[in-house]
Amino acid sequence: MRFSHCFLFLLLACILACAGCVDSAAPTKITLWHQMVVNERVVLDEMIDQFSRENPGIEVRALYKETEELRSGFQAAALAGTGPELVFGPSDSLGAFVTMEIVQDMRPWFDASRQAEFVDQALTFLASRENPDDPMLVQVGDRVGNHLALVYNRNLIKTPPKTTDEMVSLAVAATIDKNNDGRTDQYGLVWNFVEPFFAVPFLTGYGGWVFDKSGRPEPALDTPECVAALEFILSLQDKYKVLPANCDYETADALFKDGSAAMIINGDWSWGDYLSNKQIDAAIAPLPVVSATGLPLGPMVATKGYSLNVHATGKQADAAMKFVEFMTSEATERQFMTRLKTLPSRKSLLNDPLLTSDPTLLASSQQMKNGRPMPVDPELRAIWDSMRPHYQALLASNETAPEAARNMQRDAIAAIERMNQTYQSGSAGRILKFVAGLLTLGLLWWQRGAWKRLAVDWSRNRLAYLLIAPAMAVILFTIVYPFFYNVVLSFSNMSLRNFQDWQITGLQNYEQVLTEPKFFIVLLKTIIWTVVCVFFHVTIGLLLAVMLNGPVAGKSIYRVFLILPWAIPSYITALTWRGMFDYEYGAVNLIANQYLGLPVINWLGDPTNAFIACIVTNIWLGFPFMMVIALGGMQGIPGELYEAARMDRVSRLSQFWHITLPMLKPVLVPAITLGSIWTFNNLNVIWLVSNGGEPSDQTHILVSYVYKAVFNLYQYGYGAALSMAIFFLLLACSLLFLRRTNATEGVL
Amino acid sequence: MRGVKEPRWITIGRHVVLLLFVLISIYPAINVFSISLRPGNKLRSTDLAIIPENWTLASYQQLFTEQPFLQWLGNSLLVSVAVTILGVALAAVGGYALSRFKFVGRQASMLAILTTQMFPATMLLLPLYVMIARLHLVNTFLGLLIFYSATALPFCLWQMKGFYDTIPVSLEEAARMDGCSRWKTFLKVTLPLAVPGLVITALFSFMTAWSEYIVAAQVLQDKEMFTLPLGLKSFQASMSTQWGMYASASILVSIPVVIVFMLLSRYLVSGLTIGAVKE
User: Fold this and answer.
1) Where are the alpha helices (DSSP H) in A57-118?
2) What is the overall mean pLDDT for chain A?
3) Which of A185, A288, A290, A344 has the least C-beta neighbours within 10 A?
4) What percent of chain B is helix, strand and coil (3-state, nearest 5)?
C-alpha cells in the first residue's frame, strides 16, 4: 500500500517536473513586426519586459520594419507560410491583408464585451470574400491618430487662425523679405505641399472626400468640391505666395524648425520635435474652418494596432493574443499616452484628466473630432497614385484645377480596375505548360552533343572545371530558384485578388507590358539614363586614374577623398543631393546664382531637370568605382611601353589612346558591362532624388516603374513580366557589346 | 612613368583636376557630417553653414549609448571579412579557369554569371524570402555569406579574368618549362602578378557585404544579429526618420571602408609587378 502510494507520488512529481521542464525550457516564442519609431520603441521595449515578467512562458521578439517594408515583407512571409505572429501598423494596409487572406479573425479572443471597451474606430472589421456578411475583427487598435494639425510658432503668431481667411491673412502678413533682396526670408504657412495626403483636409473642408457616398471604394475626385479645394491650395502658392516653390516635407520641416516659417501643417508624429525645439516656441492648434463653406479642415485619421497572422495557430496564437490584450490594456495605453502623447483607443481613458490638461493632447483630440477615418480599402493606394501626378501638374501650372480633378478621377478608375483585375486559368494555362515542356525537350535534344563534349573535355580540362566549380555552385544555388519562380510568375495572374491562389494563366502580362505606350517612353528614358551615367562614370574615372597614376604629390590623400562617394551609404548622400537641388535653399542653385551669376533652376519641379538631377547624383556616386578599376588596371601596363613611346616622341594623348586604353580593355570591358547593368537597374537613386518619380511620375526608369506596379498596385504577375522584359533587353545588349569587344574570349 | 620629371604645367594640371574633383566628392559628404551635428533632427537647413549653430555630438553619443551600434559594427565586420575572403578565393581560381582554359561551356558560364545581375532586385524579394525560409537560413550569418558571395562573385570573376588576360602567357610557359605544375605555376607566377585585380576584388566584395540591405532584411530577424545597413535602416521611417543618428551612423560606417581602402590601395599604385612583365 505504502509502496504504491510512493510510486504514484513519484510518478506525479515526475510528470509535474517534466511539464515544468518543458515549460521553462521552451517558452512560446512570438514575433512582432512593428513600425514604431525610435522614441516609441523605448516604451515598447519596456512594455515587453514587463509582459515577459508577468508571463514567463512567453517570449516576445519585436522587430522594427519601416511601413512599406512591413507590408511587403509580411506579404512575402505569409506567402511562404511563415512570418511574425503579429504585425503592428496603420489600418490602411488591412484591406489588402484581408483580400490576400493573410490575417485572421481575432473575435475568438476578443468577444463582444471586450470589444465594447474600445472606441468604434479602434477596432477594424472587414469581411472576407467567402463570408461577406460576417465581418472579421482584423485589427485591435491601441491608438488613433496619424492626423494633421496646425503647428504655429508663437514667436511669430500670437493666436492661431479660426478660419481659412484668417489663416491666409496671417500667413501673408508673416511672409517677409527682411532685407529687401528680393528673396523671401520668412514664410507664412508651409507644409509638404507636393504630397496629396496633405491636401485631404482641404478636400473635406470644401465638402468633398476621396471616395463617393456609395459605401464602395469608388473615387470621387472629379467633383466641384475637389476643384474648389485644389483652387484654394493653388492660390496659396500662386496668389498669396506664402510658401516657397516646390516645398516638400523636408524643406517645410527645416523652415519651421529654423524659425523661418510661421505655421506648418504636419502630423502627430512630428509634433514632439517641434515642441522640444528651443529655437522656436511651437504650439498646436486644430486646423481652421473653411470660410467659404463653414466646414472645418478635416484630416484623415488612422488607427494603429495589432493584427494576427493567418499562420499563427494554437499556443502561438493564444500567446500572441495575450500580448495584444496586454498592449491594449488601460495601463499600457496610459503609458503610451503619457510619454508619447498618443490618443488612446479605450473608452475608459477618454475621460482621463491628462487628455484635457496636456495642451498637446487637448489640441490633438480636438483636431481628431474633425477628422475622417482613413479608408482601409486597398483602393486607397490607387487614389494616391492617381492624385499625385495631376496634383503636381496643377502646382506646376501644367493643368488647371478642373483638368487635374478630371484626370485624377479618370486615372483612379483605371488604376482600381487594373488592381482588381483577375484572370482565370483557362485552356491558355494548359497550353502554355505544354509548350514549355516541348521547348525544354527541344532544347535538350538540340544541345545533346554538349553533354558528350563535356564528358570528353573533362579528362583534358579537369583542373579548369575544378577551379570554376565552387564559384558557379554558389552563384547558381542562389539564383536558380528565384529566377524560375519569376519566369512562372510572369505567366500567372498573381495580384491583389489572386495572391495565395495564383495560377498560370497565359501571356496576358506580356501583352500588357508590350501594348502600353508608356513602356517604350520609360525604356527610352532608361537607355538615356544608362548611357549618360556610364559614359561619365568611365570618363571621369579614367581621367582621375590618369591624374593619380603619375608623379603627383599627396596621391594617397587625394585617393581617400575621391572614394568618399563610394564609401558613404548612398541612401543619405542621395537625399543630401536632393536637398542640394532644392529650388530655394539648395547649394546648387545658391552657388550657381551667387558665385557664377547663373539663373536659378527649378531642379526638382520640372521633369527634365529632375531627371538631370538624378543623373548628376548617380554620376557622383559611381565614378570612384571606375577610378579604382582603372587604377588597378594601369598597374598591369608595362612601363617600358611608355618609355619606348617617349623615345619616339609620341604625345601624351596618343600614348593614352594607343597604350593605356587598349591595355585597360580586359579590365574595363567587364566593368562597363556590369556597370551598365547595375545602372539600368538602379532603383535607389531615382527613387530617392526624385521622391518616387516626381514630378508627375515623369522621372521613372524601368525598375522604378516595376517597383511601383508591384508595391503600389500589387501586380506581381505584371511586375514579373516586366522584369523578364528588362532581363531580355539587358541580355541582348550585353551579348552585342561582349561580342564586339571579344570579352568572353580567353587568352589561349 | 615613375621617376620621370614632368613639365610643371602638367603637374599643376594634375593638381587642378584632382582638387576640383576632391571638392565635388567631399561637399555632399561634408553635408552629411553637418546633418550629424545638427540639433533638432533636421535633414535640411535654410543656411549653408558646415558647422551648424548650436552643434552637438548628441547623435553620436546616442548611437553608442542607446543603440547597439558596436554590435552591428562587429556583425558587419564579421560578415564582410568572411565574404571578402570567400569572394577573393573563389574569384581568383575561377577567373583563372576562365582566362586560361578553353573548356566546354566556358562562354556559356561567363554569360550565365552575367545574367544573374540582370534581374531587378525588387522582384527577387518574394522568392528570396520563400527560399531562405525553406532552407532554414533565417537568422544565420551563413545565409548572408552565401548570398553575398553570390552577389559579389559575378563581377569578381569577370574582373579577375580580365586581369589574368593582361598577364602574358609566356611567363607561365617559362615556369612550366622549368618543371612547375600547372597549379604551382598559377600560385607562384600568375597570382602574384594579379595583385591589383585581387585588391579590387577584395574591395568590391567587402563593399557588397558592407552596404547590402535587401537580403539582410530577409535573413536577419533579430536586432542582435543586425548588420550596419539594417541598423541604419531602423532609424528610418516615412516622415519621421532620425536624421541625426542616421547621418552620424553613416559617417561612422564609411570610416572602415576608408581604412580598408587605404590598406589595400598601396597595391593599386605601387606597381610592384611591372618589372617582371616582359614579352
Assistant:
1) 67-79, 94-99, 112-115
2) 89
3) A185
4) 75, 0, 25
B236 touches chain A (CB under 8 A): yes
pLDDT, tens digit, 9 for 90 and up, residues A164-204: 999 999 999 999 988 887 788 899 999 999 999 999 999 99
Confirm if A255 and A190 have CB atoms less than 8 A apart. Answer: yes
- Cis peptide leading into A517, omega within 30 of 0? no
How confident is the model at residue A11, as a pLDDT? 52
Find all residues with CB under 8 Å of A85, minimum gap 6, and list them: A30, A31, A32, A308, A309, A312, A316, A317, A319, A320
Q: Which residue of B has its CA nearest to A266?
A: B239
Among A65, A550, A632, the residue with its CB nearest the CB of B200 is A632
Strand partners, A62: A32
Cβ distance A31 to B221 less than 8 Å, yes or no, reads yes
Kindly determine whether residue A681 and residue B118, on different chains, have CB atoms separated by under 8 Å: yes
Across the interface, whether the CB atoms of A37 and B158 are under 8 A apart is answered no
Please choose, from the candidates A629, A632, A623, A630, the residue with its C-alpha nearest in 3D space to the C-alpha of residue A656: A630
d(CA B243, CA B264): 32
DSSP H or E stretch at residue A407: helix A401-419
Q: Which residue has the cell 520641416?
A: A253
pLDDT tens readout for residues A202-235: 999 999 999 998 888 899 999 999 999 999 999 9
Q: Which three cell numbers stand for residue B225?
A: 544579429
- Write out pLDDT tens, residues A581-618: 988 888 888 888 888 888 888 888 888 999 999 999 99
| Residue B262 touches partner A, C-beta closer than 8 Å | yes
Give the pLDDT confidence score for residue A226 in this predicted structure. Answer: 95
Q: Nearest CB to A471: which of B15, B94, B232?
A: B94
Q: CB contact, 8 Å: B46 with chain A?
A: yes
User: B120: which chain A residues are within 8 Å (Cβ-Cβ)?
Assistant: 681, 683, 702-703, 706-707, 723, 726
Note the ipTM here. Answer: 0.90
Q: What is the β-pairing status of strands A58-64 and A86-90?
A: unpaired
Query: How far B229 CA sits from the closest chain A CA (Å)?
Result: 8
Q: Comparing A9-23, A114-128, A319-333, B77-91, which segment has the lowest mean pLDDT? A: A9-23
Of A453, A472, A706, which has the smallest distance from its Cβ to B123's Cβ? A706
Q: Which of A598, A603, A593, A609 is nearest to A183 (CA)?
A: A593
Check A467 against B96: CB less than 8 A apart. Answer: yes
CA distance linking residue A531 with residue A526, whole number of Å: 9
Kindly state whether B189 is in contact with chain A, defined as any CB-CB distance less than 8 angstroms: no
